[in-house]
Design goal:
The complex is a heterodimer of chains A (about 120) and B (about 325).
Chain A lengths: L2 H14 L2 H7 L5 E2 H10 L6 H13 L3 E6 L6 E6 L1 H31 L1
Antiparallel strand pairs in A: 1-3, 2-3
Chain B lengths: L3 H11 L7 H20 L6 H11 L2 H8 L10 H32 L5 H33 L25 H24 L1 E4 L2 E4 L3 H28 L4 H22 L7 H10 L5 H8 L1 H29 L1
Antiparallel strand pairs in B: 1-2
Helix pairs in contact in B: 1-2, 1-4, 2-3, 5-6, 5-7, 7-8, 8-9, 9-12
The chains are: A alpha+beta (about 120), B mainly alpha (about 325).
């Protein structure tokens, strides 16, 4: 395995845990899956379709999200939105994220001085 | 925008999902594919090639369905059990083969077949059958553990960590292995050779001790008792030391084995009258005590067996208690 392969593996691992936070941040308003994919992509957080859709289902199963079919348009669409519990989880998760970022920055910046 | 490929793809995905999700998933997946095609082609009507690109991005049906699958028991025997499964399987298969090998040799040496070649062929067949049974048996046992989440190691919390065993609380691995070999051997020799070769070889020729018809009618109970013995020994291999769980398994299998053996040993006419007569005659004929002992031999044997089971159970509990205390 060369350096680039190892690197992309590490990036993938780094992103994996943060996807949920990114998804939840966009679901205060109801959205359907593909719109969410595009929105996240536009914000610099690319998520693969075949990762996001199963994730939405899982979160719905856990009661973090709830969904509703919108059949008025040309195609039937399933809209997902955070539940009350989902919103609470989102706030907790965000706080955790902020702390992690702060700590990580501190760790890596210490190194920057040394380099 | 109708592509048969999409129909096939969607069908291949949803058929792998639980029944109650399928209709919902199908709708969502179709809209998603349509959205992706639209984004890719804009106002231009998509071609078959575009469909292929989009579906490739989604992954093969099995991959995509796999990502929706959150069933923890997707493997028959998963990681925490697999190592032990392999270990036990190896030993059980070897032990069964060993037992059958010895049984086969005995059968061959005492065989009355004119053609030993036929006996060898038959023996290879029985070894194969025995191995298949053993394999299925061990697999079913571990599949059960996996489904029920049975804990095989007693290392749940720090407080429950078992002490480093001193020599007397563990048993050598050959102990349960010998047990399995013996169970197989006993059953094979007893069923194959019992009525034919165990008996009285007097001047009047061979008088079998056991009635072939009784053995024939009751052998499944005996086979069950031996299978229980193998269960116990397999469990000993898994545990590797004396534990409460092992003690309870010993108790359960022991009691069941005794219950299974009882109808066999208490069966009317198990010991043939001819054998009784021959031995009584040899032992001086007149003595009523000798006759009684001989006539009741299966019952006495049963008591000895029960005593052996009780000893085994008592040892298991005593050693488990001792191991806990230290």
């Amino acid at each position: 395995m060369n350096r680039d392969e190892i690197f992309s593996g590490l990036v993938l691992e780094l992103r994996r845990g943060s996807i949920v936070l990114a998804v939840l941040s966009r679901l205060r308003q109801p959205k359907y899956g593909y719109a969410l994919v595009n929105e996240l992509m536009g914000s610099g957080v690319p998520v693969e379709v075949n990762t996001l859709y199963p994730l939405l289902r899982r979160l719905e199963g856990q009661g973090v999200l709830t969904s509703e079919w919108e059949t008025g348009g040309a195609k039937p669409r399933k809209y997902y939105v955070m539940t009350q519990m989902g919103n609470e989880l989102y706030l907790l998760l965000k706080k955790q994220w902020d702390e992690t970022v702060k700590s990580m920055n501190k760790l890596t910046e210490e190194n920057d001085d040394a380099v | 925008m109708q592509f048969e490929l999409i129909d096939r793809y969607v069908y291949a995905v949803v058929k792998r999902l639980p029944q109650k999700q399928r209709a919902d998933m199908e709708k969502e997946l179709r809209t998603l594919i349509a959205d992706m095609l639209e984004q890719r082609c804009g106002d231009v009507p998509p071609a078959e090639h575009d469909v292929r690109v989009v579906l490739t991005e989604l992954g093969t049906p099995a991959e995509l369905a796999g990502k929706y699958d959150t069933d923890a028991h997707s493997a028959l025997i998963g990681p925490p059990y697999y190592a032990k499964y392999k270990m036990v399987m190896k030993i059980v298969l070897t032990a069964v083969a060993g037992g059958m090998l010895i049984a086969g040799l005995i059968g061959l040496l005492t065989g009355d077949t004119a053609n030993p070649f036929v006996s060898v062929l038959g023996w290879i067949g029985s070894v194969f059958a025995a191995e298949v049974y053993a394999f299925a048996f061990v697999t079913a046992l571990f599949a059960f553990f996996e489904r029920k989440g049975v804990k095989l190691d007693a290392d749940e919390s720090f407080n429950d960590l078992p002490p480093v065993p001193v020599k007397q609380e563990t048993f050598k691995r050959h102990d349960p292995i010998l047990g399995i070999v013996f169970s197989v051997l006993f059953l094979a020799v007893f069923l194959l050779a019992g009525p034919k070769f165990i008996g009285w070889y007097g001047e009047g020729g061979f008088v079998p001790m056991l009635s072939a018809s009784v053995v024939k009618s009751l052998w499944p109970a005996l086979a069950g008792a031996c299978a229980l013995g193998i269960v116990k020994d397999s469990f000993r291999l898994i545990e590797g030391r004396y534990t409460w769980k092992l003690a309870w398994v010993t108790l359960g299998t022991g009691v069941l084995s005794a219950a299974l053996t009882a109808p066999f040993l208490f069966a009317q006419g198990l010991v043939t009258p001819g054998f009784l007569a021959a031995v009584t005659a040899m032992a001086g004929g007149g003595s009523a005590v000798v006759r009684d002992v001989l006539a009741n031999f299966p019952r006495i044997f049963f008591l000895i067996l029960c005593f052996a089971f009780a000893l085994d159970i008592a040892t298991a509990f005593a050693k488990a208690a001792k191991a806990r205390k230290e």
